[in-house]
Specification:
Elements: H1 2-28, E1 31-33, H2 35-45, H3 47-67, E2 73-82, E3 101-114, H4 118-184, H5 190-225, E4 233-235, H6 246-249, H7 261-282, E5 287-298, E6 309-317, H8 326-392, H9 398-432
Parallel strand pairs: 1-4
Antiparallel strand pairs: 2-3, 3-5, 5-6
Length: 441
């Protein structure tokens, strides 16, 4: 009897050893993914961010181009002509000898003195466009980080669900062995063994389904973040540490939108629309310009005695017909665009305020959901233990035991979903309050 007991204990130890080996050895070779490193990789890899930086660079060049309008325009021209016969024949008393070639050299410098303020306006518009491009790049970066966090936690969610399924499979394997022993001893009917097998088949199906979903989620994250895809990659997540209350981690959400990139972008659109109105109005005003020109005309073969002649000039242009033609209508259209931009800004202010408050309440709800899920897991664990004791004592049937086991699996899955939902809700809150980039170390 003693030897039999030792053999049973040894057999159980051997089975436990192989189970542990099966569960943990593959993960010892896993490559771990770190959230901060994945976010940095996604930022470096994102084509949207690269295009945003290129647009910002283009806007900076446009601003420098606009600045050159403050300087005068300088042009130089040279012309030379050679004829086989005299281009100009001799003229008695004026040009004793004709000539068959001549050249001309001239240079002109002109400067706009006043053009309705269009030079200043073009520089201000270029400055606003550059600032808007930089804000747009920051907004693209925020969006990439948010999407990366969402995909990362989806992967973590599937990994944790795999652990729940693995735990269920171990439990059912032990229960199946117990049922087989009872059947061999003639203590139960075969349908009870088959009932456990059906339950295990369902768990195996879920295991295969989640494994495939995990591979797909990992591929999605790898492609988005620009990292090499490898099925051994495992996302790091420390779910053992307690989640602090959002009220302790964050103050009440700040509703001042002046630091919000999306709001500031719309502000820039309003500023640009107002400058466009001034720009269109400048087309209805006179423009004044001054300049100086110098030219020399002579022949290669002889000196014609023509010296360089400097000339100063000025010009005034008054667009009279513009007051009743297309320019006036364009001004009116641009004034309407200002009103449209201002209305969009007011709508965006309301929507962003609602989004911030919604993400704040969602974060609080996610925290409460974790507390509920923890209590549900504790109850399910205790219930399974009670049902197992009652089943072993013959007070409960197999169906009650399997239902209790399934309830525990569902409770653990609910806790995983709640924990991941909190991380995603936190990322959304930080995104809406323009703190997501600062949280990336």
């Amino acid at each position: 009897m003693m030897k039999t007991s030792k053999k049973i204990i040894l057999t159980k130890q051997t089975i436990l050893f192989f189970i542990c080996t099966f569960l943990f050895v593959p993960f010892s070779y896993a490559q771990e993914l770190n959230l901060d490193e994945v976010k940095k990789s996604a930022i470096d890899y994102s084509r949207n961010i690269k295009n945003g930086k290129l647009r910002a660079e283009k806007a900076a060049l446009a601003r420098k181009e606009a600045y050159t309008n403050y300087f005068p325009e300088v042009e130089a021209m040279a012309l030379g002509i050679y004829g086989f016969d005299d281009i100009i024949p001799p003229i008695v008393g004026v040009l004793p000898n004709g000539f068959d070639n001549f050249y001309s050299i001239s240079a002109t410098a002109s400067q706009v003195v006043y053009a309705g303020g269009k030079v200043n306006l073009s520089n201000q518009l270029a400055q606003i466009q550059e600032e808007a491009s930089l804000l747009s790049t920051e907004e693209s970066t925020d969006s990439v980080v948010l999407v990366t966090e969402t995909k990362y936690w989806q992967l973590v969610q599937l990994q944790e669900q795999q652990k729940v399924i693995a735990s269920s499979k171990i439990y059912l394997n032990e229960l199946l062995k117990q049922q087989q022993d009872l059947l061999d001893a003639g203590l139960i009917a075969k349908n009870q063994l088959l009932q456990v097998k059906v339950e295990k088949s369902n768990v195996l199906f879920q295991e295969n389904k989640i494994a495939n979903q995990r591979k797909l989620a990992l591929l999605d994250l790898a492609l988005f973040a620009g990292i090499s895809y490898d099925t051994t990659l495992v996302a790091q997540a420390n779910f053992k540490e307690p989640v602090p209350s959002p009220a302790l981690t964050y103050q009440n959400p700040e509703l001042d939108l002046q630091d919000n990139n999306r709001y500031r972008l719309l502000q820039k659109q309003v500023e640009a629309a107002k400058l466009q109105v001034k720009n269109e109005r400048a087309d209805l005003l006179p423009s004044i310009g001054v300049g100086v020109s110098a030219a020399k005309f002579d022949s290669f073969s002889r000196d014609l005695g023509v010296d360089i002649q400097p000339i100063a000039f000025g010009s005034i242009t008054i667009p009279i017909s513009a007051w009743w033609s297309g320019e006036k209508k364009q001004l009116q259209q641009q004034e309407i665009e200002v009103e449209i931009s201002e209305n969009k800004l007011k709508d965006a202010e309301d929507q962003l305020t609602v989004s911030i408050m919604k993400s704040w309440y969602d974060l609080q709800n996610a925290y409460k959901q974790i507390e509920y899920a923890k209590d549900r897991v504790l109850y399910a664990q205790e219930n399974l233990k009670t049902q197992k004791d009652n089943y072993d004592s013959g007070l409960k049937n197999l169906t009650d035991l399997l239902d209790a086991r399934k309830s525990l699996e569902e409770a653990e899955a609910t806790w995983v979903n709640a924990r991941v939902a909190y991380e995603q809700s936190e990322a959304m809150y930080l995104y809406n309050t323009n703190q997501l980039l600062s949280s990336t170390k």
